[in-house]
Design goal:
This protein has 264 residues and is of the alpha/beta class. It contains ten helices and five strands. It binds S-adenosylmethionine.
Amino acid sequence: MYESIEFNFLCLYTFVINTLEPSWALRTSVMLRKLFKDLSYRFDVSEVFTDFLDYALLVMKWQDHQRDFSYYEKKYEQRHTLFQQMLDQLSIESNNAGEGMKDALGDFFMDEISHGRNGQYFTPQPMCDMMALMTSETIENNQVVNDPTCGSGRMLLALGKLNRNAIFIGSDIDMTCCKMAVVNMFLNTMRGEIACMDALTMEFRKAWQLDYKNIGGCNVPFWVEINNKEDSFHFMNQTKSATPAVKTPVPNKKIKPVQLALFQ
Ligand SMILES: C[S@@+](CC[C@H](N)C(=O)[O-])C[C@H]1O[C@@H](n2cnc3c(N)ncnc32)[C@H](O)[C@@H]1O
């Protein structure tokens, strides 16, 4: 009897999945998409998304009492309040029913903005989780983990599932990706740094360092902007690793250049 209930449930599930409208198959909630649509009716979607990220970062800069939101009020008029509603909705979705570490922002970006342009498809979350486990079964407190091409930061979120108290370092050449990673790190109270830089040439643009303060028994996240590359964790680490702990062996000039001389 149980088998037949299970079978019927499976049939129903397959039927529902197969008959859903394509838009339902999107990863982003209807609510988030509706708010974004209302905001972007007069503007280009990429521009509104960038404004949303800047708005989120401004809200998250709570320690600055001189924050100025007039840009949003002037540009979006009475609709500017939708930014806060969107941020609230994003926080709820990223909270993931209390578990956190969910890249709702990256999903939204892929569904509504990038559509895969410039290779902006992020690794599916289950694969990130698997790769995090394969890379490191355990992560110590304060251990540094790094994703040099972090995109929206979902690989760091996957590592965060193994230990939230690690130091998360990420970089990306794309400013929008960096801002998404900062918002994701903030929403999950993760410590570390996201740098906007070319991970191949090490050309640096700016970075955001994230930490939290214990205020009244609560860990409250905050971020600070880093414009000087010497202050960036990325370059501090590089200076350290550039000095090899083991001395480079010097070739012995006395050895005659004959076969097997290397093994003498
Ligand atoms: C396919 S995404 C992967 C993002 C993330 N690691 C993930 O697994 O979802 C590749 C990312 O690499 C970034 N990228 C490409 N070239 C880069 C470079 N030279 N330096 C830093 N980031 C780079 C892109 O902007 C993009 O966000």
